[in-house]
Amino acid sequence: MHQDPRATATAILPLVGGPANVVSAAHCVTRLRLGLADRSRVREAALRALPGVLGIVEDGTSYQIVLGPGVVGRVAEEFDTLLAPAGGAAELAARGAELRAANRRRNATPLKTGLRRVADVFVPLIPALIGCGILAGVGGLLANLGWLPGFTPALTVLSSAFMALIAVFVGHNTAKEFGGTPVLGGAVAAVVVYPGVAKVSAFGAALAPGQGGVLGALAAALLGTYVEKWCRARLPGTLDVLLTPTLTVLVPGLVTLYVLMYAAGAAATALGTAASWLLATTGAVAGLLLGGLFLPLVMLGLHQALIPLHATLIEQRGHTVLLPLLAMAGAGQVGAAAAVYVRLRHDTSLRTTIRSALPAGLLGIGEPLIYGVSLPLGRPFLTACVGGAAGGAFVGLFAMLGTEVGATAIGPSGWALFPLLAGGSGPAATAAVYAGGLLTGYVAGFAATYWFGRLEPDRPAAPPPP
């Protein structure tokens, strides 16, 4: 039975200290991210016990409640409605910005802060990437089968239009995240995809529309934000209205045309070449490392910093070859949780947690199992990484043998990734390799945890001495 979003939001609010304790509220694909004035006011045990709450994550900048994809957006909307009487959206946003800035100064390293801010540029784009990716997969399947030939061009248009203009959205979000005017960020980044750039030459060669892709758009909008801030700090109000937007488009736009598009294009090409070479020559080793190290990135909340790499590969090749390898980490986590469930037969509380979190884990949402099961137990977190490494090595090995597995979009994982799979060997072979990787991850994660997870099975109490 589906939980009512309004009921979920209403139940969460008092458990996090009420409206007065919430100074910011936002959400990503799976988590409701709250800025709290006083975290000691949170009743975490009751919060974890709420139906629909899959886990709790604290990363130093926000208090994150894992609700799952699809659900979190509706709950966040209701949560915002409940917060509105507590002072209005403007006041909430101002207090939230102040809290986030303070938390970041106290707890975040410059590297982690930078990675999270870049991730925040791309996270809002994930729903569109998923939708367009599924349409691309359906269109490709219909084309391969020769079905509905008059309809597949329409699917191609629908799935490709967003990717053709993704640079504009990246520019808009970059300016918004880094304190500029979003529409100016979009205007500067639009240079990257404008067909007229073919008439401009840089470094002795004509530019191509889209050259540099999302990396070029990110760099262009970031430069535009700094130019805009510089102008606004120095120009009087009468000139600011006219000159700031003009200089914000002109200066970064010229730098984008004559420097950034060429440089970002070279970087994007190098990334695609490196990914292909890596899988073709060292696929098993690369898969082992990527699958084995991804859970620690998820634990730290840094996995979203890989989104620009995925987006670049999708833009170049139509799919990212990294995501299926990284998805094997979730399979290792599921196998480890299953082993804990089997070994600790009499730990009713833990087994209940596993039963509630396992369906989400099978669909690639790993946080509930990480924070509710493997990480608190210690060693099972490491053995889950072993399972992920084994699954990644399996998929990487087949990439070396010529069966490359890619994903046409980012966001889903686990079983939910099947509709988004793509590869040069056909849908059946691609799905078979991915399924084999998941099975390998499950089995390896289970075996490593069962035998080496330092889990002490419950034993009946010894009879009292005579």
Automatic annotation (TrEMBL):
<keyword id="KW-0418">Kinase</keyword>
<feature type="transmembrane region" description="Helical">
    <location>
        <begin position="121"/>
        <end position="145"/>
    </location>
</feature>
<protein>
    <recommendedName>
        <fullName>PTS sugar transporter subunit IIC</fullName>
    </recommendedName>
</protein>
<feature type="domain" description="PTS EIIB type-1">
    <location>
        <begin position="6"/>
        <end position="89"/>
    </location>
</feature>
<dbReference type="InterPro" id="IPR013013">
    <property type="entry name" value="PTS_EIIC_1"/>
</dbReference>
<keyword id="KW-0812">Transmembrane</keyword>
<feature type="transmembrane region" description="Helical">
    <location>
        <begin position="381"/>
        <end position="411"/>
    </location>
</feature>
<keyword id="KW-0472">Membrane</keyword>
<feature type="active site" description="Phosphocysteine intermediate; for EIIB activity">
    <location>
        <position position="28"/>
    </location>
</feature>
<dbReference type="InterPro" id="IPR003352">
    <property type="entry name" value="PTS_EIIC"/>
</dbReference>
<feature type="transmembrane region" description="Helical">
    <location>
        <begin position="277"/>
        <end position="300"/>
    </location>
</feature>
<feature type="transmembrane region" description="Helical">
    <location>
        <begin position="321"/>
        <end position="342"/>
    </location>
</feature>
<dbReference type="InterPro" id="IPR050558">
    <property type="entry name" value="PTS_Sugar-Specific_Components"/>
</dbReference>
<dbReference type="InterPro" id="IPR036878">
    <property type="entry name" value="Glu_permease_IIB"/>
</dbReference>
<dbReference type="InterPro" id="IPR018113">
    <property type="entry name" value="PTrfase_EIIB_Cys"/>
</dbReference>
<dbReference type="GO" id="GO:0016301">
    <property type="term" value="F:kinase activity"/>
</dbReference>
<feature type="transmembrane region" description="Helical">
    <location>
        <begin position="354"/>
        <end position="374"/>
    </location>
</feature>
<feature type="transmembrane region" description="Helical">
    <location>
        <begin position="178"/>
        <end position="197"/>
    </location>
</feature>
<dbReference type="GO" id="GO:0009401">
    <property type="term" value="P:phosphoenolpyruvate-dependent sugar phosphotransferase system"/>
</dbReference>
<feature type="transmembrane region" description="Helical">
    <location>
        <begin position="239"/>
        <end position="265"/>
    </location>
</feature>
<dbReference type="GO" id="GO:0090588">
    <property type="term" value="F:protein-phosphocysteine-N-acetylmuramate phosphotransferase system transporter activity"/>
</dbReference>
<dbReference type="Pfam" id="PF02378">
    <property type="entry name" value="PTS_EIIC"/>
</dbReference>
<feature type="transmembrane region" description="Helical">
    <location>
        <begin position="203"/>
        <end position="227"/>
    </location>
</feature>
<keyword id="KW-0808">Transferase</keyword>
<keyword id="KW-0813">Transport</keyword>
<dbReference type="GO" id="GO:0005886">
    <property type="term" value="C:plasma membrane"/>
</dbReference>
<dbReference type="GO" id="GO:0008982">
    <property type="term" value="F:protein-N(PI)-phosphohistidine-sugar phosphotransferase activity"/>
</dbReference>
<feature type="domain" description="PTS EIIC type-1">
    <location>
        <begin position="116"/>
        <end position="464"/>
    </location>
</feature>
<dbReference type="InterPro" id="IPR001996">
    <property type="entry name" value="PTS_IIB_1"/>
</dbReference>
<feature type="transmembrane region" description="Helical">
    <location>
        <begin position="151"/>
        <end position="171"/>
    </location>
</feature>
<keyword id="KW-1133">Transmembrane helix</keyword>
<keyword id="KW-0598">Phosphotransferase system</keyword>
<keyword id="KW-0762">Sugar transport</keyword>
<keyword id="KW-1003">Cell membrane</keyword>
<feature type="transmembrane region" description="Helical">
    <location>
        <begin position="431"/>
        <end position="452"/>
    </location>
</feature>
<dbReference type="Pfam" id="PF00367">
    <property type="entry name" value="PTS_EIIB"/>
</dbReference>
